[in-house]
Write a structure and sequence with these properties.
Elements (H helix, E strand, L loop, with lengths): L11 E3 L4 E3 L1 H18 L8 E6 L3 H12 L3 E8 L8 H19 L1 H4 L4 E4 L12 E4 L3 E5 H5 L3 H7 L7 H19 L4 E3 L4 H13 L3 H4 L5 E2 L8 E3 L7 H11 L15 H15 L3 H14 L4 H7 L4 E2 L6 E2 L6 H5 L4
Parallel strand pairs: 3-4, 3-8, 4-7, 8-10
Antiparallel strand pairs: 1-2, 5-6, 9-10, 11-12
Bound molecules: Fe4 H S5 and zinc ion (2 copies).
Length: 339
């Protein structure tokens, strides 16, 4: 298979785009596509500050790399969940993020000299105080849940009713809170996550099977901030297949953690991914069409009724100030109340 642009040996054949590319042209193509999606969905501008949630996996590290290569002001946020799972999962994933940043700085001469310096204060709204962080751009913020709140995800999950048997529920809640908090305290405009097309389609498929309108209206490449002053949430890789983001990391030489979080095992979204992969094999492009047609239908108002029904007035949590539909404390703060 030859590269469509230069005729050299191709490293990837993207059947859904009828496009094969060599390594060099693929490394150009991914940022070009990402830039196109950033503009199309009006995710952010060149003046805005972006916080990228990095997990040490291929998607989030590739996204951070692409945004930096495109010249955006993008910092990373790693949340240490304290998940061991027999593979030292959290420590390994933390290391991958640190390693990525070191490599990136090393390859970028201006950053090696520490040309641009700025400050951000990351303060805990509860629990022990984190230290103020002075950093070079780009920087990696690290929040260790165990150290900051006194319990790891696994520990909170086994203590609380919400988490028992389903750690992902408390994990998602805690991650959302921490991301919002770091974005707010650090003055970031946008919070970017590395969700790829396969992730989005698996979620969409699950929510369609159950016709969960409340979730369907909240699934989009850009989610406006819940309250003024909070960061909006964006997914710049939402149209990039998982296979493409993995290939990007590989060709670009980004090291990442191969293991999935041990708690992801047996999840319905993994089962849905398998079904969808089989469908994609039989008809290339079916995932992308499913997702794009959903976005179009959504734009045309197919879910407008559900959107009105799902609208709830949000209050500020009495303890942390984050938006909540509860009258006093938000679900995150309630997690730590009954210790
Ligand atoms: S990290 Fe957390 Fe995921 Fe692990 S415990 Fe579940 S939600 S699977 S993205
Ligand atoms: Zn080429
Ligand atoms: Zn709260």
């Amino acid at each position: 298979m030859k590269c469509r642009k230069c005729g050299h040996e191709a490293v990837i054949n993207m059947r859904q785009h009828k496009l094969a590319l060599c390594g060099d042209h693929f490394l150009e193509w991914v940022p070009e596509q990402t830039q196109r999606f950033i503009e199309k969905y009006k995710m952010f501008t060149r003046d805005e500050r972006i916080l990228v949630a990095v997990s040490g996996g291929k998607d989030s590290l590739s996204l951070w790399d692409v945004l930096l290569r495109l010249g955006y002001r993008a910092d990373g946020l790693y949340i240490g969940l304290g998940i061991e799972g027999g593979v030292d999962y959290s420590n390994q994933s933390h290391e991958m993020c640190v390693h990525f940043l070191e490599n990136f700085k090393f390859q970028t001469p201006a950053l090696r000299t520490g040309a641009s310096v700025s400050n951000v204060n990351v303060t805990a709204d509860d629990g022990p105080q984190t230290t103020n962080t002075q950093y070079l751009i780009p920087t990696l913020h690290v929040v260790d849940i165990g150290k900051l709140y006194g319990e790891t995800i696994s520990e909170v999950a086994s203590r609380t009713t919400r988490g028992r048997g389903k750690p992902c529920s408390v994990c998602g809640l805690i991650k959302r809170h921490v991301m919002n908090r770091v974005a707010r305290d650090g003055g970031y405009d946008v919070l970017a996550t590395g969700h790829n097309l396969d992730d989005e389609v698996a979620v969409l498929f699950g929510n369609t099977l159950t016709w969960n309108a409340g979730y369907l209206v909240r699934q989009a490449p850009v989610l406006p901030a819940d309250k003024p002053g909070l960061a909006r949430k964006v997914k710049p890789f939402c149209r990039l297949y998982e296979r493409e983001s993995a290939a990007y990391a590989l060709v670009r030489g980004i090291e990442y953690i191969y293991d999935e979080c041990p708690f992801a095992e047996g999840s319905t979204s993994i089962a849905h991914k398998e079904v969808l992969n089989q469908m994609e094999k039989d008809s290339p492009g079916v995932k992308l069409q499913f997702y794009l047609n959903f976005l179009r239908a959504r734009e045309q108002g197919l879910f407008a009724g559900a959107e009105r029904a799902a609208h709830v007035e949000l209050n500020a949590c009495e303890k942390c100030g984050q938006p909540t539909s509860a009258p006093e404390l938000c679900a995150f703060c309630r997690l730590w109340e009954k210790r």
